[in-house]
Amino acid sequence: MVPQTFFLLAAAMLGKGETTGDKVSRQAPTGAQAWAAAHSQAAAALARMSQQDKINMVTGVGWDKGPCVGNTAPINSINYPQICLQDGPLGIRFGTGTTAFTPGIQAASTWDVDLIRQRGAYLGAEAKGCGVHILLGPVAGALGKIPHGGRNWEGFGSDPYLAGIAMKETIEGIQSAGVQANAKHYIANEQELNRETMSSNMDDRTQHELYLWPFADAVHANVASVMCSYNKLNGTWACENDKALNQILKKELGFQGYVLSDWNAQHSTALSANSGLDLTMPGSDFNGRNILWGPQLNSAVNAGQVQRSRLDDMCKRILAGWYLLRQNQGYPSINIRANVQGNHKENVRAVARDGIVLLKNDGILPLSKPKKIAVVGSHSVNNPQGINACVDKGCNVGTLGMGWGSGSVNYPYLISPYDALRTRAQADGTQVSLHNNDNTNGVSNAVSGADAVVVVITADSGEGYITVEGHVGDRNNLDPWHNGNQLVQAAAQANKNVIVVVHSVGQITLETILNTNGVRAIVWAGLPGQENGNALVDVLYGLVSPSGKLPYTIGKREADYGTAVIRGDDNFREGLFVDYRHFDNAKIEPRYEFGFGLSYTNFTFSDIKVTSTVKAGPATGPTIPGGPADLWEDVATVTAVITNSGAVEGAEVAQLYIGLPSSAPASPPKQLRGFSKLKLAPGASGTATFNLRRRDLSYWDTRLQNWVVPSGNFVVSVGASSRDIRLTGTITA
Ligand code: BGC
Known about the structure:
binds beta-D-glucopyranose, Glyco_hydro_3_N, Glyco_hydro_3_N_sf
């Protein structure tokens, strides 16, 4: 299907109003009505189901017993098919005709809601084409409070507002294709070490304002399902946590869909059922044993340990997700190996390219018909063993486009930096030399006489069931892998035109590289998926100006982040102060702050205007998906004029940060509450409009157990990063 068709379909399906061109208008979805209709269909179907049918609906068939990573048995009495749940957040795991999309972290670093939404829609289209009913993504936890965290790259960076917007756009995109999305991992699974034994202990306010926040966006976007995580929250397993599942997710956030367990994250029969778990996955442990529902749940229901109404509620929620996405009206049969790529590589290239963050440039970039370039490093070429040689990407060999684990996919093809640079060089008549390993010997020969030396370095991480070079999922440190610093130094010793390209799952410490004379540019190319080299060449040669912005802070040293992988339980002592909230609060100078990124042009900011109707006090609205309805209403608008004052076209991400009035409890000095990406021709101006919802001006009041707008003056800061503030204003409540 072409994108236009499914955008239109989607709009019709969820009843959310007009389409403009090929984009769905972003007016608030009428979620409550769509869910009510789905629930009444579900109730009708439920009446035709036996107790055994119900048990089957909520219990996976067991590990490795079906075509997908998760499967449930068909229920013939209601024509409910065998259901396929498949990873993951960047494509169809184990697919052979599917796209290797950009990881979440790259999508976040574009700050481009249209690209993020299109990525979601294409993910959904591929899932549907493969007959996948429930796609296991997107990821809002890990939020990335620990830079070493193995799975941070699957999600959207360490700011809850940015992650929340990305969750919404991705979920609406996926579900626009008729696929049930899954917001995972709920909640506070911030590291791989001991993820299946540890407890994440945190205070109520931190939970609400940081870790719950993007899940509230997911619920507000009508996500069909939520995956509870492996860890404990405040001493109780996330998948049998009455407070997290029943009280917060279902009651406070008004979640109408179902909770499914992470794979083998269930620990009890009746307790998990009564605490709010609705679907157990995969239905057994990884040895086919430890079956906690199925016959066990049947006995628990018969013994009155689990009420029949609870079992009915589980089924209604699962069925409602199925009806909400109209999967009852015909669905492709399950075939993970279908060829469904369409034109989706265009989104991969665009996200990979527009997510590139230019950190340093003394004028060497963009390149213009250089006479000779040198390409340096084992990570500039494809893995000689094959692009999919390592199971679940459990190695860091060759060019890096994604981390490892269940959130990885097969590449259909992979364009390495060297491939793309060579193609471009041929067109320009440029001579290219290659040093395709990380040995510092021989570098000087390869780089001699080059006008530009592209050194590619990496850092990788992933899920803890695979250990790569001593990293058990989480990274052991924030240094580049494979001699990266020494390789850059060796190149710079021999040639003063070094451009460092970083492919990384997250922050690395850049001090050695920045102290190396001859390093003229640093291009933070992130994790680009299958279009790796093409996206890089687009930026290096100035086909586009770089326009990505960091979705996390890069510190000068590891200790500056104030968080680390913890042995035992994590008490989240840093509270609200993670990433830039911490650097700002502790007055630590970062190397490159959250929201930072250079361009080939310049932007000026002017003419800030603030209008507001906000009134201090608690939220009072009825509960809709996402929480009290009034939390989601716009209460203030800020506009600013952005002008491209340079010589080439470019795009600026204008960012809005809020400082709460002094009547609020101690809070981070600045918190992101709006952004707008404007593409501007040289000399052109555009207006960045930031609509602030009530929630954007609220803090979580632990005594009232509600969101409260504090009285007084809010500082409104608009700028080009979290520390490059160009305009300020005030909102008074
Ligand atoms: C991961 C999930 C994934 C599941 C199924 C688990 O180990 O934490 O993210 O969806 O496996 O593969």
